[in-house]
Amino acid sequence: MSEQDVPTAAFATRLNHYIRTRRQPDGSAWSVPAVAAAIGVSRQHMWNLSKGSASPKWEVVCALADLFDTKTDAFAEGLDEEERRRDEAMTVFSRAGREMSVERLESVVSFIQLLEHQRGLDKSDDNDTDS
């Protein structure tokens, strides 16, 4: 992706998505002012970027990619349904991780492992019938 390849609307959509779904290192939610402070731009400029009324400089795209631990190309892409659903699930899991007791989290992990095991058995059953 080059400096001129960051579509403003797609960038704003992705930026707002990351602000809503990612967490700061301390577990708190991001906000537009917090993101602005973290990457060293003015709050007004960050608001304009989030509204799609300003185009980002390449340095800002790189700083945001670092902040949100993603690739720079992610800011030029739209959100597909699967990715939106995965990110929504990750937000729920993240929130649950902070709010649930360790015992409940262990139960959730055990349940997910059971589902993964069952899915593996289902796949092997499908392979057996193909033979």
CATH architecture of the largest domain: Orthogonal Bundle
CATH top level label of the largest domain: Mainly Alpha
- CATH T-level topology of the largest domain: 434 Repressor (Amino-terminal Domain)
Q: Give the percentage of residues in beta strands.
A: under 5%
Mean of all residue-level pLDDT scores: 80
Shape: elongated
Q: What is the count of structural domains?
A: 2
Using DSSP, what is the number of strands?
Answer: 0
N/C terminus separation: 46 Å
CATH superfamily of the largest domain: lambda repressor-like DNA-binding domains
Gyration radius from CA atoms, angstroms: 19 Å
Q: Any key phrases for this structure?
A:
disordered N terminus; 6 helices; 434 Repressor (Amino-terminal Domain); mainly alpha; about 130 residues
Question: How is the secondary structure organized here?
Answer:
Blueprint (H helix, E strand, L loop, with lengths): L7 H14 L10 H8 L3 H9 L6 H10 L13 H19 L2 H29 L1
Overview of the molecule:
This protein has 6 helices and no strands. The protein folds into 2 domains: 8-99, lambda repressor-like DNA-binding domains (434 Repressor (Amino-terminal Domain), Orthogonal Bundle), CATH 1.10.260; 101-131. Helix content is 68%, strand content 0%. It is mainly alpha-helical. It is elongated and about 55 Å long. α2 (32-39) packs across α3.
Summarize the structure.
The protein is mostly helical. The protein is built from 6 helices and no strands.
